[in-house]
Amino acid sequence: MTNIHYDNKHYELAENQSVLECLIKQGVPVPSSCRSGVCQTCLMQATAGTPPPSSQNGLKESLRLQNYFLACVCQPTEDLEITMPDDRHISAHATIRKLELLTDEIMLVELECASPINYRAGQFINLVHDSSHVRSYSIASVPRLDKHIQLHVRRLPHGRVSGWIHDELSFGQRVEMRGPAGDCFYVSGKPEQALLLIGTGSGLAPLYGILRDALDQGHQGPVRLFHGSRDLHGLYLMEELRELESRFPNFTYHPCLSGSEVPDGFAAGRVHEAALAETPQLKGWRIFLCGHPEMVKMARKKAFLAGASLQDIHADAFNVSHV
Ligand SMILES: Cc1cc2nc3c(=O)[nH]c(=O)nc-3n(C[C@H](O)[C@H](O)[C@H](O)COP(=O)(O)OP(=O)(O)OC[C@H]3O[C@@H](n4cnc5c(N)ncnc54)[C@H](O)[C@@H]3O)c2cc1C
Ligand code: FES
């Protein structure tokens, strides 16, 4: 039986229990989101004892060396003394340079970092609100094409951080951010490979970045982007995507509507089903799936069954946070 010591209290871990599960069960508020070692919202630090290497996957080397770990996937084999991360070591500051509604619900947020950060289009950063609310937002910008980091933030009803972003942030305000992190991005090296990008809602953010990154790097294979929403109000950047379509003959854009009204020129039904109907054989394709967790889960399964190799399927499910 292993124990964790946190904030002057001892907690005993049950068998197969993660540090996060144990603390939350005991009523300790630890931020979390994906609960699968992806979003890094549940970052903690061991001040005594060594966290298992598997709980440090995806962390920067500097954080690993300081014994930071992800509480949601940490099942320690020895006793640990742990603490919340020290913001001074892991956070950076950025200034809001633009806030613009892309749809009624989705806001374009542009951030200028106090010191430049290295990132890839499609990765995500974590925004910190009131010290304790940490949320991931995917990056729509491409470092060599765009001056500032761009995010697309969808307002959720009563959402703490998305509500703060939509209602309270203003031009010139400083915000705290962490990251970047994540491995959902374009890697050059196979310019002939076919790419299929499927997203719902603000899941277009990483896909828009990945798409422009790939085209700008001279990707030659076919590139198909399917963006889904219930109705027309939920689709955005249509003009920009049509413009890319006219500039790059290998790129096609497929807006898709799952509601009852589907004008000509739009695919009907759920976006991953429309994409799979258009492209039933996916052997050799590289696939990017972003947005609603249920869509990502179903699309991953269907893409695999259609012949895509698991290592060619990159995904970010926009799981909502738990506190
Ligand atoms: C890797 C990753 C990338 C992401 N990228 C993006 C992105 O690019 N764009 C984007 O818009 N989102 C993205 N997300 C989702 C984002 O991180 C947040 O989860 C989202 O913005 C909601 O946060 P919030 O604080 O506004 O809502 P929260 O306050 O966390 O609430 C979430 C939902 O739960 C409900 N809720 C809250 N408290 C209660 C309660 N007590 N009882 C019942 N219901 C409750 C709220 O109404 C809301 O609908 C991403 C997530 C991940 C994991
Ligand atoms: S990495 Fe732990 S909640 Fe996402």
UniProtKB/TrEMBL annotation:
InterPro entries: 2Fe-2S_ferredoxin-like_sf, 2Fe-2S_ferredoxin-type, Beta-grasp_dom_sf, Cbr1-like_FAD-bd_dom, FAD-bd_FR_type, Flavoprot_Pyr_Nucl_cyt_Rdtase, FNR_nucleotide-bd, MRET. GO terms for molecular function: iron-sulfur cluster binding; oxidoreductase activity. PANTHER family: NADH OXIDOREDUCTASE HCR, PROTEIN RFBI. PROSITE patterns: 2FE2S_FER_2, FAD_FR. Its cofactor is [2Fe-2S] cluster. This is Oxygenase. Residues 1-88 form the 2Fe-2S ferredoxin-type domain. It comes from Candidatus Methylumidiphilus alinenensis. Residues 89-187 form the FAD-binding FR-type domain.
